[in-house]
Amino acid sequence: MIAIRTFKSPQHRVGWPWQKKNVKSLRSFKDLSFSVLTMMLARNLVSRFPALAVVCMVLAISGCATKPPASDPAARAAFQETNDQLEPFNRAMFGVDQTLDAILIRPVVSTYRFIVPEPGRRGVDNFLRNLRSPITFANSLLQGNVKRAGSTLGRFIVNSTVGVLGFADIAADLGTPYQYEDFGQTLATWGVSDISYLYVPVFGPMSIRDGFGMAVDNYVFDPVTWYDYGKNPGWVKWSYFGALLIDVKSETMTATDELKASSIDYYAALRSAYRQNRAKEIRNGAAAPAPKFTSGEDDPFAAPPAQK
Amino acid sequence: MNTSRRDFVALSLAATTLQTNLAMAQDWHNSPTGLVERFAQLGITDILGAAISQREKTDRFRTLFKDFFDIPTIGRFVLARFVRSATPEENEKFAALFEDVIVYTWSRRFGEYKGQSLKVKDSGPDGDDGALVTSDIVGNDGQSFGVAWRLRKRETGYRVVDVIVEGVSMAITYRQEYATIIQQNGGMAGLLAQMQKQVNDLKAKVG
User: Fold this and answer.
1) Is A265's CB within 8 Å of B181's CB?
2) To 10 degrees, the CA torsion angle through B60, B65, B66, B68?
């Protein structure tokens, strides 16, 4: 109960003194900058642990990872493989995230999983997936994938009607599985690099590119933002965000728990797993090419000469 | 006279059966999809669905894992550039610990088995002399997720060198995690110490 109340409290704290005078411009600013929510959650946390703010600030300033020297090409290649330029900062954020997860998010998600049985959770997941169809539609077009845009539109029409507002994924049963595109993926297909791995508390692992992509999707393509825009007190947006958060955490909890249990350095394991999974999304699910050693010459899984 | 003749018939029959069995064994070791199917089948009938103690399940899994996976190759892939800088003793210790880590992390979850089955979808060439087998693990609720198996040909047939779940390769994940630990947490000795601790913890949990 306490956890749920704490989760709601950011809503009451939104009231900046100047917000009422020019709601529109500031609302749009708020929407653009997803980090406001993080900031508020952080404020919540910081009010409990003031020392945390100092720690975070120090790390944010000294947050860049040192790149290995050019004299060690293998180490450098490994550094580029994980591309975590902000590692010290990210690890600090990861710590904040894990604390928030333990005291706030996990209790809420566990309660949700306890109250709502699996078919109900599936329905909620389907509903939220259907709601973001315009984002996938727009990004498919931006990636030049007209076919995918078409099938996304088809799915949206079928699921919104026959599938009762999207709660049932009828289109998948009819042979058109769910597709997920976002602006981060669009940028990737345009050749934009992910700049650096980034860990944002509550939002989890991402990259600088994908964080920017998320803001664009939210601000430009998300139908809930359109609905919310200068129209209502914003509770739709907040409920939507809360539902999304609980749904995503609930869907990924088993996998992340397993990774945590099987790893020594959970931060590094999650970074690796996330980046591989993200690469798969960008490839649209195509099989990954066989991995190469950093020299790029031999099959790294080849038997050593002695064994042959 | 009569008996020895009968014995001979019986013996030759037994020999033929043995040969067919061997041939069948050869068959699945030489077919990428056959190997994956066989691994799943043995895993389900002899371990996951078997009415035996957890300890016995763990032992059986270790045998199965060694038989179907090329563990030394996976270990070398995971250590990557650190293989050369480590001492032979360190490499040996790593190989043993790495096997334990996988055996115990997998066997920790045997109790969660709820009748899922594996359906092999396709197989294609991969690497120099290998194959990539794609499959789906299908649960009773109809939910499924994709698992790909990277195989390489060895003298005695195919062996698994990597398992890829939803695009996440087990070998790459371990490689990147361990590289981070080696660099930031006391080098190879640090990694081995932490792996030893993890194995002890897992062992205590698995029982």
Assistant:
1) yes
2) 120
